[in-house]
Specification:
- The structure is a single chain.
- Helix content is 21%, strand content 26%.
- The protein has 402 residues and is α/β, with parallel strands linked by helices.
- A hairpin with a 2-residue loop joins β7 (90-99) and β8 (102-108).
- The two termini are 43 Å apart.
């Protein structure tokens, strides 16, 4: 005779900023008898926002603090693994996990939230699954930066800008390190109003950072890893840029493969997941009303950043509760706000910048209405306030080596 499961599970795939935000929101709102399971292959919470800084410096031997042990209040759990396949009401992991006293690979669910985000080239995100692997990568990168005198950064987005403005301040002694940023667009930070480019360009001038704009770097025959420790990068305009350390800081790959088995039509040609305004996946396949996508992986019209998810997460939780309780109420929908960013421009300096509204979702940077809003800050710390992050993510834990 089959036994009734003790809990009805709502599964969140992805344990980074947005996934954990979604899990906490569900924990606080789901009705009794429901449990939240987070699927995450990394052994620790990866504080991605700090990686560009800690790829350059240990900030007083704090590299290990970028990786934070996290748990959920019982009976909710984080299960470490990756999703191989998904069906309409269950998923299969790439390894067995312990759950309810049993070793299992298949997990049935009442609802599923895909919060897998995107992969950046290191050091935007890191290879490996464990804390020790992450620390080793960052320390190797720190050593390479320390030894290099001529550093080339490919990419003028947030990661490239942050690293370019950090290096001159971290290494102020003579001979100063030469820093060059190569960017394919005419404007740095191209997803934002041109005013942000002007601010960043001025900061580059102040710090002696050179920018080569408007020509794409050609991928070397051996890939970017072949020139990481020094080489020549050829641009599409024929120019060649030489460096003894070349950092690739552009491009992102959506982590959407897990839906290929159940909703291939929801995966766009660029790899992002089509969603309805309710954040339910927008697929031709039937019976998938309880599968949602949130954050960067979802093509919701929102900027690719963690902050917009603060508005998305409550909508998804409310809609899941409506579906599992057979509510007749109309599901909640989402309207994206203009892109905003808190961007460091050095060890202390940073800017909070918000785009004006746009008249077109398909061309937001070409249809601005009005002017952006922004203000400068100078209260940053070299360690990026890592102690505060631990206090929020792992309350009461003070041993950063765990």
């Amino acid at each position: 005779m089959a036994t009734t499961p003790a809990f009805k599970d709502v599964v969140v795939v992805g344990g980074s900023y947005v996934g954990m935000m979604q899990a906490q929101e569900l924990i606080s709102t789901l009705p009794e008898g429901h449990r939240v399971l987070v699927i995450e292959k990394k052994s620790h919470f990866n504080h991605l926002f700090a990686f560009p800084r800690y790829a350059l410096t240990s900030a007083g031997d704090k590299t290990h603090a970028c990786f934070i042990p996290t748990t959920l209040v019982a009976p909710h759990q984080i299960l470490h693994g990756a999703v191989e396949t998904v069906t309409k009401n269950s998923l299969v992991l790439d390894r067995t996990v312990e759950l309810d006293g049993k070793s299992v690979k298949e997990l049935p669910f009442e609802a599923l939230v895909v919060a897998t985000g995107t992969r950046l080239t290191p050091p935007g995100t890191l290879p490996g699954e464990t804390k020790l692997e992450g620390i080793a990568f960052l320390k190797t990168h720190q050593d390479a930066v320390k030894k290099a005198n001529n550093i080339v950064i490919i990419g003028g987005g947030a990661v490239g800008v942050q690293m370019a403005t950090d290096i001159p301040l971290l290494f102020p002694s003579e001979p100063k390190k030469k820093v060059t940023v190569v960017h394919s667009r005419q404007h740095l930070m191209p997803r934002f109003h041109p005013a942000l480019h002007e601010i960043v360009a001025k900061r580059f001038d102040e710090l002696g950072v050179k920018a080569i704009l408007g020509s794409r770097a050609k991928v070397p025959a051996g890939g970017w890893e072949s020139v990481w420790n020094g080489g020549v990068v050829e641009l599409e305009n024929g120019e060649k840029v030489e460096g003894d350390l070349i950092i690739f800081a552009t491009g992102q790959t959506p982590n959407s493969d897990l839906l290929k088995s159940v909703a291939p039509s929801a995966i766009q040609s660029n790899g992002f997941i089509s969603v309805k305004p309710t954040f339910q996946i927008d697929a031709k396949e039937e019976g998938l009303e309880r599968i949602f996508a949130v954050g960067d992986i979802a093509d919701s019209g929102a900027p690719k950043a963690a902050r917009p998810a603060m508005a998305q997460v409550p909508i998804i939780s409310s809609n899941i509760i409506s579906l599992i309780s057979d509510s007749k109420e109309e599901l909640k929908t989402y309207t994206p706000d203009p892109a905003a960013i808190h961007l460091t421009l050095g060890l202390k300096e940073s800017i909070i910048f918000r785009n004006p509204k746009s008249s077109s979702r398909d061309d937001p940077t070409g249809t601005f209405i009005g002017e952006p809003t922004f203000f400068m800050k100078d209260d940053g710390k070299e360690d990026m306030g890592i102690e505060g992050v631990w206090a929020r993510r792992a309350p009461g834990v003070t041993d950063y080596h765990l």
